[in-house]
Design goal:
The complex is a heterodimer of chains A (147) and B (102). Chain A has 147 residues and is of the alpha+beta class. Chain A has helices spanning 5-29, 57-62, 110-146, and strands spanning 45-52, 73-81, 87-90, 102-105. Chain A has one domain (2-146). Chain B has helices at residues 6-11, 23-30, 33-59, 66-98. The chains are: A alpha+beta (147), B mainly alpha (102).
Chain lengths: 147, 102
């Protein structure tokens, strides 16, 4: 239904921003994690956003036969590791210290993560406002019939 | 909410055409305004079922995206409001005709 395409675009963006906030929160939670399943310290994660024609099979199916241009929907394409090398700190008593007494800590800057988090929250808010605007537009249209 | 909207329309008696009563007139009626109205109500019903499904999924913890559920509820609300506006317009037109004086 193209009547709700604006709502669907905002909803997809909100999903993407929520995932970005999730990844940032995971980064913040793991600022001093030295052990992971892959071995070594936690690697900082980053989301990659992509814009594609169809978000889901249903959306693609709904668009069949429609003459309107298809609105690209945002989605999280992948979550990648930050290639920055880990920060080495001299802690000889630490069980994960190497032979020289240095421990590899993830290269995460809490200030940068907090800024990212704020960005994600604001973008989420922005899209929530777009949802409300779309809702108001629909209600205004309905008021034509009522008036 | 558990009662479907379409159950209301199915319980309604079919209105025979007063001008030419008979089987031939009803076939003409089926393809017209009432069938499009019924299909529109069915679409509203479908949007409502979708919203209902998403709410129950959210409450059962099967999904985490609250905003998409809210958007589905909003869609259902707007669709229902549209249906109500069309219904009000039809009832108004009917009452207008009923008040005709000869």
């Amino acid at each position: 239904m193209s009547m709700f395409s604006m709502l669907e675009a905002s909803g997809a963006a909100m999903t993407a921003e929520r995932q970005r906030a999730e990844v940032t929160a995971a980064n913040l939670a793991n600022t001093s994690t030295t052990r992971t399943d892959q071995g070594g310290p936690y690697r900082r994660k980053e989301v990659v956003f992509a814009s594609s024609g169809a978000l889901s099979f249903r959306m693609a199916l709904n668009h069949v036969g429609s003459l309107e241009p298809r609105l690209p929907a945002i989605r999280v394409a992948s979550v990648v590791d930050d290639p920055a090398p880990p920060v080495m700190r001299y802690e000889p008593g630490h069980p994960d210290a190497n032979t020289e007494g240095y421990v590899a800590y993830p290269a995460i800057n809490p200030i940068q993560e907090m800024t990212d988090l704020m960005g994600a929250v604001r973008a989420y808010q922005l899209n929530a406002s777009a949802v409300n605007a779309s809702k108001q537009m629909l209600q205004q249209a309905l008021q034509i019939l009522a008036g | 909410m558990s009662n479907s909207i379409t159950s209301v329309t199915t319980s309604l008696p079919t209105i025979p055409s007063p001008a030419t009563p008979g089987a031939s007139s009803s076939t003409q009626e089926e393809g017209g305004f009432f069938s499009s109205l019924t299909s529109a109500i069915e679409k509203v019903e479908q949007v409502h079922t979708d919203a209902q499904q998403q709410i129950s999924d959210l409450l059962q913890g099967n999904r985490q995206d609250v905003h998409n559920v809210m958007i589905a509820v909003e869609k259902a609300d707007v669709a229902f409001q549209l249906m109500m506006q069309v219904r009000n317009k039809i009832v108004n037109a009917y009452q207008e005709i009923e008040r005709l004086q000869f």
